[in-house]
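Re: weekly structure request thread

Next one in the queue (178 aa):
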Amino acid sequence: MHAAIMVMGVSGCGKSTVGAALAEVLDGVFLDGDDYHPQANVDQMAAGQPLTDAMRWPWLDRLADAVQGARAQATTVFACSALRKSYRDHLRAAIPALQIVYLDVPYAVVAARLSARKQHFMPASLLESQYATLEIPRNATVTVCADKPVAGVLKPLLSALTAPCDTDSDDDAPERAR
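Done, posted below.
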């Protein structure tokens, strides 16, 4: 089984951009968690309504199945908000040896990114609820401030992902990449 790496954080933090670039550097595949939402979830978010947990669990299961299938062939990097510890624990249970990259970005930076983003179902109006829901992972494989260009984010990620890390819980403080 190849590595599975989740890039997580609030909407607009750069999960898809960083995740796709990381997958390319690692000669792996990239899966965007947004692609695994059922239409009802997309419609809910597009209407400015946050998802309920009942809506999230089936989505997380579909995503985990896709990651497990893909990692049988290649290193798999995937983007998923995974804002709550319970969501990360759910994914860890379904994806053994999951490595977690947390993209930490200041609210103002994300708000500016979301206001400039076009043709995405997640409206900027949900950003406040994203930060309110966020339970910062205390034991991510790596935490990096992603308010800089992608190349500046990838460098610390690559060095941190080569070091072993206990990714089975959020019980310890993370190493913070700069």
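The CA atoms of residues 92 and 168 lie 7 Å apart. Confidence is low (pLDDT under 50) at residues 164-168, 172-178.
Next request, please.
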